[in-house]
Amino acid sequence: MVYEAFQAKKFFIVLAVLCVLLSALGFLVAGVIPSASTTNHGAYPVTGWIIVACCFGMAAFFVVRALDKKPQLRIDQAGVWYRAHSDATIPWDEIVACQVARVYNQRIVQLTLRDPAAYPSKNPFTRATAGLNSAMGFAGVGIAATNLSGGPANVLAAVRHYRPDLFAGTSRVI
What we know:
39% helix
């Protein structure tokens, strides 16, 4: 069994549409859309166009994410490969624990590694905060599973398929 997860296309398309709709606020502030409350509503063209540019920029970012057809996560007999973390596949014998962290609506599948320094993140921010994460009891890889196809339940099911011992004593998947 090889499990591959991709970007959640519908999620990113919805975000792009919401950003385009939010740009209406920028058009209102810029004075392109007249205000019904007063005749001189105090337009701020520079501010309005900055809002419009930011909204359309974020919408373009979300469209690019939605159109990305490359796998983001692969779990197979060799181990776990997570594109956002590293180009290396982390072998199963390096993973010592698996748990789920809930951050508001996000579900982060946390893989605790035996030697986190052996598989550093390619993300500079994640590398910089690795010490803080380790001090909080987490030394490894955080997989943002909510925005992946299949969601956190399928990611955990794939991990459980290869390493059921990582879930000893737990009955719930999420």
